Amino acid sequence: MASGLLNSSDESVYTEKSAFTQTEHNIVAAYLITAGVISLSSNIVVLLMFVKFRELRTATNAIIINLAFTDIGIYAALNIFFGMASIGLLTVVAIDRYLTICRPDIGRKLTTLSYTLLIMAAWLNAVFWSTMPIVGSFVSYTMTVIMVNFIIPLSVMFYCYYNVSATVKRYKESNCLDSLNVDWSDQMDVTKMSIIMIVMFLAAWSPYSIVCLWASFGDPKKIPAPMAIIAPLFAKSSTFYNPCIYVIANKKFRRAIIGMLRCQTRQRVNISSQLQMTTSSVPLNP
């Protein structure tokens, strides 16, 4: 997943005679331009939403704000760095969901500083692994990066969301949801949104990871030209579907974004919860 991993495969596509027709090149260019416009505009709308609605600036949503920045960064430049940061932040979201729903005794003790440190850890991890090739990579670099920034995070997410699912099922069977000191509807919205984001991220980045492994441990010249081109395009698709997921899966985000697009004032857009919130839902200090 290093920035140069696909160089050799890309060269094999374009050396001597291009494997694509001019029409296919135009289609790719049109896709990149369209996706770029959608990605930048939609993620800017998400950031403006958090600027306008102070109620949405919670500890959990601070992670979403950082994800919006990574989405913009993935498309603009430093694809690998922001991709690593994205999966790190998605892992932090999974941990937040696990602690909020499965271990509320610990979740209630988390502070703004706790979330800040978790977010910083995701960024520092991305900085470390994306700069390693600069100081000299090692033979197993690609495998290590994929293990640390793909396999392990996905394993953590699977563990967290499996336990979240089991906990929710247990609460429903015991009919004790109403007795919990949690705005359960909001928590379920955030959890469903997070799961969809991870599934889509996996779908977007898996082809790219496969091509990286192939280029590093196999013969890059044998990588099919369409696969070498489509894999990075799939990865870039992760930049514009997150805002769509926010609107579809989260009622508060949907009301806020629709209100913004309709130029409604904060007073006319009802996004506040009427129930006591957990730590991850408490507004951050200005």
Automatic annotation (TrEMBL):
- Main subcellular location: membrane
Q: Where in the cell is it found?
A: Membrane
PROSITE patterns recorded for this chain? G_PROTEIN_RECEP_F1_1, G_PROTEIN_RECEP_F1_2, OPSIN
Q: Which UniProt keywords apply?
A: Chromophore, Disulfide bond, G-protein coupled receptor, Glycoprotein, Membrane, Photoreceptor protein, Receptor, Retinal protein, Sensory transduction, Transducer, Transmembrane, Transmembrane helix
Describe the location of the G-protein coupled receptors family 1 profile domain by residue ranges.
Answer: 42-72, 74-246
How does the UniProt record describe the way this protein sits in the membrane? Multi-pass membrane protein
Name the Pfam families on file. 7tm_1
Q: What is the protein name given in its UniProt record?
A: G-protein coupled receptors family 1 profile domain-containing protein
- The organism is Danionella cerebrum
